[in-house]
Amino acid sequence: MKTYADVLKNARECIGPYCKACPECNGKACRHCIPGPGAKGVGDVAIRNYDQWKKIRVQMDTIVENKEPDLTLHIFDQTFRYPIFVGPVGAVQTHYGKQYDDITYNEIMVSTCAQLGIAAFTGDGLDPQVMIGACQAIKKVHGKGIPTIKPWNKDTIQEKLTYIQEAYPIAVAMDIDAAGLPFLKNMNPPAGSKTVSQLKDIISLCDAPFIVKGIMTVKGAVKAREAGASAIVVSNHGGRVLDQTLSTAEVLGDIVDAVGKDMKVFVDGGIRSGVDIFKALALGADAVMIARPFVTALYGGKDKGIEIYLKKLVSELEDTMKMCGATSLKDITRDMIVCL
What residue numbers bound the domain in which 42 lies? Predict the structure, then answer.
């Protein structure tokens, strides 16, 4: 196995009936497949996420110093080789087939990402063992991972934080938009949206930087800042929680302009190439998160599959930076792109 095409071919043999391990993960083949990797409703949001990044064009400028680009990211008192994080994924057996359970999936993803100089967000689930296993995996790599809690009630969150704090993670996240996931409805423990006051109480329980994932408006970003979040993720949960929303590419710039000086801003949703990553950074994101294609990479080749996909992204990002005149992440500016 040497190429990303090899990884995809291997993945198709074991990834289950819903995900098709497409050459470009654009949400079309798995449209509205839940269970599965698809989006809620008619499935148009996952597709819109993908399509809107492609409507942003990059501006070439090669009259610059011929210098290898530096992709190093400094965030949360940590240094990462690239501005790329793996997004949290849960219930992998339900959505992607029986090859791996959540605990094994997190073990492979967390350890491989740490070895490659990036970090993985881990998922959460109704089974407490999912969070326990994720925290054990993070602890093994000296905290180089980010556990992600669903928006449970406060008692459940406090319980999960006991496992998390023993792992000493670089940060803790909550995918607050998971309140709209179909499988969390009417479940015990209860999960749902949070007020600013409730979110502030939760953040006060956490020693590490707190990331609020699922922000899609300036208003929401301001409320996350008010609650004390260190960072946000501009995300519509891959289109999985509400039909007919805007894409993350369409709202990122305004959110960065509103809160980017006060907190770190990540973005996910349809980012599938190094060129897409460049566009997100140009709009002001500090880093990107990618989930579905990394799932496919793991199913298609475990640690080697993840490495091959990451190398593909990095090569594309480096090429784009070179051709657009950026030699470091801070050099990537909004005038290097055109939003059509």
Answer: 4-329
